[in-house]
Amino acid sequence: MKTLYLNYGITLAALGLLGYFLTHAKSALISGLLSGIVLVILALLIKKPFVAIIAKVINILLLAVFSWRSSLAITALLNQHPEKTVPAILLLSMAIVSLWVLFSSFRTKA
């Protein structure tokens, strides 16, 4: 479980940095990089049972946020806003990774 959330945090941080460098959006740094840092810290503390529960709750919340934000970006993209292509791809990637990690966390023993 530690490796799962460590990789999840690193992936979100990398996608956040990529989003910032591609679009210069500070929200990419906040959503990706900050979420990634929080998850890396949780991964380092995951041996305690309550931390695993906190990590799963944060995972669910991030899945909701990334799904919502990607749906907004995709809707804008479909409404003739091509500048939303990169944010839509990155946010959808974050949502997919979050969903995969959530399913994997229930299959993995702590």
TL;DR?
The protein is mostly helical and 110 residues long.
Whole-number total of structural domains:
1
Listing every helix as H and every strand as E from the N terminus to the C terminus, the arrangement reads HHHH
What overall form do the CA principal axes indicate? elongated
For the secondary structure, the number of strands is 0
Q: In percent, how much strand structure appears in the residues?
A: under 5%
Termini separation: 6 Å
Mean pLDDT: 91
Low-confidence stretches at least 5 residues in length (pLDDT < 50)?
none
Radius of gyration, in Å, reads 14 Å
Instruction: Return the structural class.
Output: mainly alpha
Contiguous helical run count: 4
Percentage of residues assigned to helices: over 70%
Let me know the largest β-sheet: none
SSE topology:
Blueprint: H1 2-23, H2 26-44, H3 49-78, H4 85-107
Describe what you observe in this structure:
With 110 residues, this protein is mainly α. The chain has four helices and no strands. It has one domain (2-107). The chain has helices at 2-23, 26-44, 49-78, 85-107. Helix 2 (26-44) runs antiparallel to helix 3. The longest helix has 30 residues, at 49-78.
Keywords:
elongated; single chain; 110 residues; mainly alpha; 4 helices
